[in-house]
Design brief:
mainly alpha; elongated
Amino acid sequence: MRGSEVRFRTSGAATLAFGVAAAIFLGRFELHTDDTGVEVFLILLLTGVLGFLLPKRAWLAALVGLSVPVAEVVWGQMSGVAMMALVVIGLSLAGSYTGALIRKSVSR
């Protein structure tokens, strides 16, 4: 490494495990709370961390947020799931690409 160059190395298996754990946590959290603000914060935070860890696959990190509407469908609470899915995927994409942007700016 030269000068102020910073490199991050992430294990694919560890990142995958974190992504699966985050998806399970978000889906379970959705079913047991009515606090939307905290849920939005967690979606942005978790997808941001995954976007930071995998900047080239930030779109893939955004799929973690879809565990929220999927949990609603699986447990039969179908009211407004289509609109919720659109909002959640927008939040997830914003979080993951923000994390990727932070990673790229720190790496330079």
